Amino acid sequence: MADHAASLVREQFRTAEQQRETETLGMWIFLATEVMFFGGLFVAFTVYRMYYPQAFGAGSADMNILLGSINTVVLITSSFTMALAVHSAEVGNRRLLAFLLVATMLLGCVFLGVKLTEYYQHYLDHKMPSVWFEYAGPNASKVQMFFVFYFFMTGLHALHMVVGIGVLLVILARTLARSFSAEYYTPVAMAGLYWSFVDIIWVFLFALFYLQGLHI
Amino acid sequence: MAEPVISTRSYVFTYLALLALTLITTLLGYLPLGPFSMVVAIAIAAVQACLIAGFFMQGLYEAALVRVVAAAGVVWFLIMATLILTDYITRGWLPFPGK
Amino acid sequence: MSASSVAAEVDWLFWVLVVVCGTVAVAIACVVIYSAIHYHRRSENELPPPSISNSVRIETAWTVIPFFLFMGMFAWGAKLYFDIERPPDDALEVYVVAKQWMWKTQQLDGAREINQLHVPVGRSVKLLMTSEDVIHSFYVPAFRIKQDVLPGRYTSIWFRATQPGKYHLFCAEYCGTKHSGMIGWIYALDPQQYQHWLQEGAAEGSLASSGEKLFHQFGCANCHHFDGHGRCPNLQGLYHSTVRLAGGSTVLADESYIRRKLFDPRATTVEGYDKNTMPDFSHQIGEDDVIQLIAYIRSLGPQPGSTFPSSPAEPPELYGNQPGIAYPGAPPLQNRTPGIR
Amino acid sequence: MASQVLAQTATNYLTDKQGILSWLLTTDHKRIGLLYTASITGFFFVGGFFAVLMRLHLLTPRGALFGPETYNKLFTMHGIIMVWFFLIPSIPSTLGNFLIPMMIGAKDLAFPKLNLASWYVFMLGGLVTLVALVRGGVDTGWTFYTPFSTTYSTTYVVGAALGIFIAGFSSIMTGINFIATIHRMRAPGLTWFRLPIFIWSHYATSLILVLATPVLAITLLMVGVERIFQVGIFDPALGGDPVLFQHMFWFYSHPAVYVMILPAMAVVSEIIPVFSRRPMFGYTAVAYSSMAIAVVGFLVWGHHLFVAGESVYSALAFSFLSYLVAIPSAIKVFNWTATMVKGSISWDTPMLYAIGFLGLFTIGGMTGLFLAALGVDVHVTDTYFVVAHFHYIMVGGAVMAYLGGVHYWWPKITGKMYPEGLARLSALIVFLGFNLTFFPQFVLGYLGMPRRYAAYPDEFQFLHVLSTAGASILGVGYVLPLCYLIWAWKYGKDAGPNPWRATGLEWQTSSPPPAHNFDVTPIVTGPAYDFEGMKEELNLG
């Protein structure tokens, strides 16, 4: 078993522990860059939200809170299953790991399905900027701007979800190929970090887009 | 084989807390809090984010350096947000168009 | 002799900076060149005797001394900036509309010019500027002033020419193909010559009279009656008054506000009036027209300090709490408390 | 510094494996460094060619060669290529890539495959940008200001922005790699305060790459979305604010200047102690000042917006912060100077470049103080004064240091010495040509010549002619090293492991180094720039 672990230490590292710590650190730095990536959009959104509170409130009132909160629960659940997947990798339970990875991916697909349903509903409501946008009330161009940010940010988030599902597919394949053990499961942990991070982004998107128009 | 740092129980509690917070923030959204509705929603989202990062992502159990990295991401985002918003908030403090 | 009231001080600061920085730079250069020559390596095996390579005292000195020097530069630069940015109250007002690739200037008394501007020497001139397309920048090197001209909002800058003459006007923000052709002249004339020049140009009619024509042409007069009985507010006395909006907040009726009412009328609603009455003119009206209409509304009687339509008077400083001027159509922030500046 | 000197091994990283695939699929940081070197050299001469055309065009007031459309595309493409495809990757991706693992006693970077991927991503970004260029070019200026870029320009804005967007990921990959490597891969005994300043500066650089580049990516993405879908994000006609774009753009692009200059400072901090045979004066202060520049450098971007329509109070804050960031730069200059005093100073080419850097960077930095002074900035911003200022930093600073570094480490990289006389001559030519090119531009700016003008009033012609004359000299100064360095690789004298008698782990191994840098992991017992060991060596000799 020890030989197996040693063979998994790449040549630039001295020990398996050094390798694991370095890879974890690299992943967290990457997530920090993602914070700044989404951060730019959050700042722009905040500036316009500050200037056009009524218009952005009016746009928010068009959100489907039921689907939005269902999606939040779905994504939090997927994060939970992902965390358990990492846990089962830690204890070396390969069957449970595979099962939880599949569950996580399925929840991710449910999320994307619900999201697409919402997009389709917005399309039918003529609330899709540049494709079909009509708004009769005041401040139409600012309401449109709300929807530009809505589609931009949730779209970018959905893209991250798609990438995440792709990553999990690879992890699943490697799990089934018996690549991971209690000694070496760093890729599972890395995928888990990414997946949970995407969940964090959604929690904020939910707060920004869905919750601001409920009392209007 | 190292013992996992976080027990399944902790994961379950974290999960339940996250679900509870989602319910609370949704219900609070119906209250007419004015400008505070955004503040409350973001504050609850931040708590949720901390729970996910701390437990699901094991951030609380990693080396201090990892926590510094995570904090740096947030701090730099706040730098950007604060200094940009400073411009927008102080516009018009001088009574001449465009100042 | 400098060409504008601020130019002399800008040059002063500039040359003081040249002297201060130059002295330090020359000192560094001397030390480097002296060391390079005097301590030049004589043989390949030479190794200098160890000497101090660390001194908290020295490090502190060359951290703290530059800091105070820099703070001096900062303070002087900032003071000057406020002088450049804050126009005096008695300034002659000129409207500037920039478009690819020309400058259109209009004075209240009528003269409308392309790529040139005639101003009297010794009188402060305040420019209120906007762009019809991309960002431009109004730059008169001899006056040491520059201000970007943005689409969708007004920006302002001022100067007081001190020497008669002909000065370059440049566009300093890259604006497309003929950016380098977007240049013109500022003519600073003796007051008498300026009066003479004004009379020559007066045939065009004042800006306000053009605005009055537009006021009728666009049908504004159908609703905005001057007896106060129209469906819309009486615009007499509007300019620079404080307007009470539906919802309880207030806004100063300056150029930005009037422009916003034309381009995005539903962003704000005057208290007691229907928000859907005012049509949106954004697709029918150019920035030139807006300026003429503003001039007309001004001519109806500026009454600083009065409140519009009618309520307890509030001082115009309240304007300072309106961030909305940053945007066309930006509504004021809801119920902001005054006094946080 | 290190406890042992390695025996010469039979093969080195250049001869270890043969064939084109062994280069294209390499994960060796040294080979990837060379791949980057070849790429950015290509981009440098493409960008330089545009610069030459611009300078020739500006010989006459009406413009000698092109219409304004072409001129606008030239300065845009010059800026885009020089900033994103030469200056940003220049020192970190070439010398940094080559040296960081060697300086910290590691076999490679933490993520070698990511390193290779970053080169491919960089090349893809460059390719996309070049395609946009060949298909008709871009005329927005490298700053992509809205609404011109989103609504009014009719050129290939999206293509160029996409290329930069892609190349940005290579910056991020490099940054992540460096940070993880410097934290986790140091040799036993190599504590933070035993690290060469080169490592400190590259750590600071990586911090900026990682935290700023994503903001550029998202900003360009927003421009792309606004342009493709014609929706409102920055467009004032749809409620947007073009100044917000400028904030977000400069949140990246101002720190990006420090991405260019911090590695240059890194190189100079290695050269000056070695060629003065003195430990770095004020090592701790210099190390911390790198970090201070990286952090405070994030707080000053608003000084690009003093006349752009930001609030006066915001301008006030940014002016103050801009003065703060000047302090650590000043500390570095003073410490470099103090290092030279009472040293044993050689006049070898790397030192000549370092001294040139010192002078030009000082001028560039000090003119930054002019631009940070609000009242003066109003006059000189968006004029040739700014053009001269940032060229003193980026060309006078970063490129001089890059050339100095290339000469300094060329014996290590190739195992061969370059011709010293020719190299000194070209260093002199670069210095003189540079000053003749750009010093007149300070004067032009003060006199009011706006930048990005395809034609200009007659009274500016004399200074423009001087500048063009300087540019032709500068061009010669850049072509010469290209020729003799390549020549030296084949025909130069063998350099030996440590021709400069330098300290530092990279000199403890053979030249060129073996594929894994060190046969035995070195153990570090003393501080950087320790010349005491040389004394024993000399006594023995």
Would you give an account of this structure?
The complex is a heterotetramer of chains A (216), B (99), C (341) and D (541). By secondary structure, chain A is an all-alpha fold. Chain A is built from 7 helices and 2 strands; from the N terminus they run αααααββαα. Chain A has a single domain (23-210), classed as Four Helix Bundle (Hemerythrin (Met), subunit A). In chain A, 79% of the residues lie in helices and 2% in strands. Chain A has a two-stranded antiparallel sheet with strand order 1-2. Chain A is elongated, with a radius of gyration of 21 Å. The mean pLDDT of chain A is 91. With 99 residues, chain B is mostly helical. Chain B folds into 2 domains: 1-62; 63-99. Helices cover 71% and strands 0% of the residues of chain B. Chain B contains 3 helices and no strands. In chain B, helix 1 runs antiparallel to helix 2 (36-56). The mean pLDDT of chain B is 89. Chain C has 341 residues and is an alpha+beta fold. Chain C has 3 domains: 7-37 and 53-85, no CATH class; 92-204, Cupredoxins -  blue copper proteins (Immunoglobulin-like); 207-326, Cytochrome c-like domain (Cytochrome Bc1 Complex, Chain D, domain 2), CATH 1.10.760.10. In chain C, a hairpin with a 5-residue loop joins strand 11 and strand 12. The two termini of chain C are 38 Å apart. Chain D is globular and about 75 Å long. The chains are: A mainly alpha (216), B mainly alpha (99), C alpha+beta (341), D mainly alpha (541). Chains in contact: A-B, A-C, A-D, B-C, B-D, C-D. Chains C and D meet through helix 1, helix 2, strand 7 and strand 9 of C and helix 3, helix 6, helix 9, helix 10 and helix 11 of D.
Class derived from helix and strand content of chain D = mainly alpha
Structural shape of chain D: globular
How would you describe the shape of chain B?
flat
Q: Give the overall average pLDDT of chain B.
A: 89
Largest interface: C-D, 85 and 93 residues
SS field, number of helical segments of chain D: 17
Estimated share of beta-strand residues of chain D: under 5%
Q: In the residues of chain D, how many domains can be counted?
A: 1
How many angstroms does the end-to-end distance of chain D come to? Answer: 19 Å
At CATH level 2, the architecture of chain D is Up-down Bundle
What's the number of extended β-strand segments of chain B? 0
Give the % helix of chain D: 55-70%
N-to-C span of chain B:
65 Å
Radius of gyration of chain B, taken over Cα atoms and rounded to an integer in Å: 19 Å
- Which CATH top level class of chain D fits? Mainly Alpha
Mean pLDDT of chain D: 93
**Which percent range fits the helix content of chain B?**
over 70%
The biggest sheet of chain B, with number of strands, parallel, antiparallel or mixed sense and barrel status, is:
none
